[in-house]
Amino acid sequence: MKKFSLFLLMAVFLMFGARNVLAQSANEKIGFLDLSKVFDEYGKTKEYDKILEGKHGDYEKERNAKIEKLRAAQEKLAILKDEEKAKQEQEIEKQKTELLDYDRQKKTDLTKQRDEKIREILLEIEKVVKDYAEREKFSLILNDRVLIYGKPAWDVTNDILKTLNENFNKSAESKVK
Predict the structure, then answer these.
(1) Which of 13, 23, 57, 96 lies at a C-alpha separation of 20 to 30 Å from 5?
(2) CATH number of 2-176
(3) Exposed, middle or buried by CB within 10 Å (0-12, 13-18, 19+), for 129?
(4) What is the pLDDT of residues 85-126, one digit of tens each?
């Protein structure tokens, strides 16, 4: 009997506690955002994509020039005398090694630059979301990647994106002046 009374008392306590938590959470403001959309449509992301494409294009041009030089050296190989041929083969091997090293280093550099910029952009997005949540009195803003369903009214994606792009445009204008 004593155990049953204790159990009943705990059940009543948990019901009231759960009711208070639910009542409290009903007063909380919750939102979510499509992080991929915000990232992809942010002006700074688009600007950096263009810069990165340019750097990748420059890399491809340099790489193609090195490949053409290597091919030309290989074509000359057939008409050379034996002792000149041995020297040319050594030079070709050296060029191949240099090309592989160049290729690996450039890819590493471009990947590192891209990763640093992505990190920078994501930190900016995080700051804008935090400032927005504080200003608009949100208790919680979720990333849609962990969300199965959210009321469309809770979606703050466009508000965040608008704020980010306004800030980006203002900073771009101040750089021009």
Answers:
(1) 23
(2) 3.30.910.20
(3) buried
(4) 778 888 889 989 999 999 999 999 999 999 999 999 999 999
